[in-house]
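Bench log. Compound arrived from synthesis this morning; before running ITC I wanted a structural hypothesis for how zinc ion sits in the protein. Inputs:
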Amino acid sequence: MRRRTLLALTALPLPVAAQPRPIAVASFSILGDLLREVAGEQVDVRVIAGPDVDAHHFQPRPSHAEAVRNAQIVVRNGAGFDGWFNRLISSTGFRGVTVTATEGIALRRATPTPGHNHGSEDPHAWQDVRLAIAFVRNIEAGLIRANSAGQAHYRTRANALAARLEVLDDWVRVEIARVPEPRRVIVTSHDAFAYFGAAYGVRFRAPQGVATNAEPSAQQVAGLIRQIRAENITAVFIENMANPATLRRLADEAGVRIRGRLYADALSGPDGPAATYEAMVRHNLGLMVPAMLG
Ligand code: ZN
């Protein structure tokens, strides 16, 4: 196994500035973690939009262009989430392997909010653990495409990760089942959990749509406050990478307590509670379930 791995490494074309390891670049932290898990230590995995960063809107720096230029493989989410990464890829003349993590996934339509988001796709597929397994398979296929000699290595690692995610997915279902169906309602900053909601039977409400740039109207916020009161919703959360101001005001006016910080579109730093995709799912569930219960 070890010998095969080393062989795989030497078969990869080395980038111009003699790097010891091949470089793979992911657009944002969640993809970066899945990529790291599948690629292993022998690949130098770089992440552009790092921990706690809103990857809906991101301004790459020259160092990011340099990383992409030297990479053999890049991984993007697609579905309109990381369009800035597409521009970065084409601006650098990158000619390696491009993986679109959401490829082959039946994407949800974004919930239309008045005036915008009509017809757009919801990019947050990673919040359904089974769809994250599809991400893993797309990443595995891309790594093999970039370096066929490493096939067995990537396949072994992808299979191990997929197996862990199957167990995680089962655990999420068991946890959600503890909450009586009428109590399964959660309020968050923006519409990042529709895939989670569809997969696990939880209703999500957010003052903001699937993107994070448009401010919700006073009418939308007022409507949500009425709903929180009428349905006695207790699971109200801010998100790690979104501005908490609207949610704080909303919770204040609805007279409910914010029950913590969900990790929606980005992981935490290495010392935080959601340093990996798997830790993120466990952390979010650990907050969601008691909050929904009251
Ligand atoms: Zn988002």
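What the model suggests: Strands lie at 23-28, 44-49, 73-76, 97-100, 185-187, 203-205, 236-239, 258-262. The chain has two domains: 23-170, 179-293.
ITC booked for Thursday regardless.
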